[in-house]
What we know:
Distance between the termini of chain A: 44 Å
Oligomer: heterodimer
Number of helices of chain B: 10
Number of strands of chain A: 0
Bound molecules: adenosine-5'-triphosphate, magnesium ion
Largest interface: A-B, 21 and 25 residues
CATH class of chain A: Mainly Alpha
Amino acid sequence: MAAVKPKIINQKSAHRLISNENLQALLLFLLSLGLFLLFWEMGARLKLFAKGMPTASLTITELWYWITHPFYNNGPNDLGIGWNLLISLRRVAIGYTLASIIAVPLGVLVGISKIAFKAFNPYFQLLKPVSPLAWLPLGLYLFRNSELTGIFIITIASIWPTLTNTAFGVANVNPDYLDVSKTLGASRWRTIFKVIIPAALPNIISGLRISMGISWLVIVAAEMLLGTGLGYFIWNEWNNLYIPNILVAIFIIGIVGIILDQIFAYLEKLVSFGRQSS
Amino acid sequence: MNTSFTSNSPSVNPNGSASVQISLSHVSKVFWGKNGWLNKITRQTTPNFIAIEDINLDIQHNTFVSIIGPSGCGKSTLLNIIAGLSSATSGTVSINGQIVDKPGPDRGMVFQNYALMPWMTVEDNIKFAVETVYPKMPRKQQKRIIQEKIQLVGLQGAEKKHPHELSGGMRQRVGIARALAINPQILLMDEPFGALDALTRGFLQEEIERIWEKQRKTAIMITHSIDEALLLSDRIVMMTKGPAARIDKVLKVPFSRPRNRTVVENHPAYLQLKQDMENHLYRETRAVEEARIK
Ligand SMILES: Nc1ncnc2c1ncn2[C@@H]1O[C@H](COP(=O)(O)OP(=O)(O)OP(=O)(O)O)[C@@H](O)[C@H]1O
Ligand SMILES: [Mg+2]
């Protein structure tokens, strides 16, 4: 009995410490949030910031309004934020899917074949650092259509992380797995589909995750120049000089970004099987 | 130098026929250094490295052979050549009279780091091997083989687990089951228990002995453990230090089968054999250390 007791106490206190930690973090978060809102509210009321800066309470009221009335439609310049969100998400979904369909197979090819890697790497290196928005005029010229241009830009923006991560994962498959495949006499295709791709899957998913993050960053910027979507919503409110709605949109963009990222975080966990992920 | 079993020992084949199954003749392996013109310009040349030189060895059917030698002498290099994973620079490996230069399902391999696919369950890992080697076999039969091997290595109940949920010992059981599931003529093992703790190691050695008594395949095992080699092998191949490692001599292990640790350790020849091996390893390892100091 005496030997068991201290163990239980240890476990209990360790447990308490963890829950304490979370609790403390939550309290600190709420405290800082309260202080921030208070500072904002007071500053705006005392006109310490720029002229026309809305108060925190007004912004929160607006946020509540937009959240409770997401879907109404009074023409393109007065569209519920829910519609705008769906428009942005649709563009991202189409562009991102296209990019993934191109990037994953190309990444596998480039990862497997040293020749393909050497041959195509200059393109990747050259195009990767270019801001996706640089493609905007070209897209408008080519498609003469803002919808297609938006999708085009998302596609270009989200190709590179998936491509490079896939290629890296495929090129660095544990050689033991390949030896197993070889000693069994597995065909090339079987090795690629049953061994190489599953082995590289954690890398592929983290590439897809980064690509998704970039798409979400880029769509807002692109839409400012395209009409409709969350980006355009912000631009429109800027033209109306109504700052609270801009803040509301920023908040919603952030929340959706978190949700998208968490979906991929979950997928990453799903395919890791005990391997540590980056 | 020709170190052939047939030359110095009678057969251990239960049928009494001294038939050679694996034959290595004049096998050498050179790892080519970097000495192209580009390396010369950048002064980053490395010399050629002769890992093993002129290895001659005949292995008869149904023999268990251990390879022992100082660290880095080229044991893995030799085993990989037999497996067909790497090719000899000169010399030939033949199995049943046929020269082999690529891997094949006649040889099953057990890896030191298990080499299980982490995304496959225990069952799927074995299934991958069976499906690859016997794609036309009916599903039912494949299933039966997989079940059989899982039982053979004592993994019942863990079929649906993934490798990361298993202990090292359990993982290597999967590795062994996978190698046996394709019903190879020859089992190749590169330090199969090297990554395990002493206790688990002991258990698995006895397990291998039990399994081997059930289906006597020709087996080649690399090991660093003298006791392991003496418990399991019919022949022990002792290699000299590298570079240009050779076979120093081949010991014949006279213990009767089936074996068990206590009986083996009390056999009159046990201490002498152990002494011989220790002396050999000590001499070669000291030579390695001396070469390093110079
Ligand atoms: N791909 C390679 N290129 C160059 N040298 C190599 C290569 N592979 C192995 N070697 C060298 O060949 C020698 C033999 O290596 P090998 O792995 O066969 O030794 P080993 O006997 O299996 O060693 P250990 O007991 O540590 O497993 C070593 O000196 C090693 O550095
Ligand atoms: Mg080795």
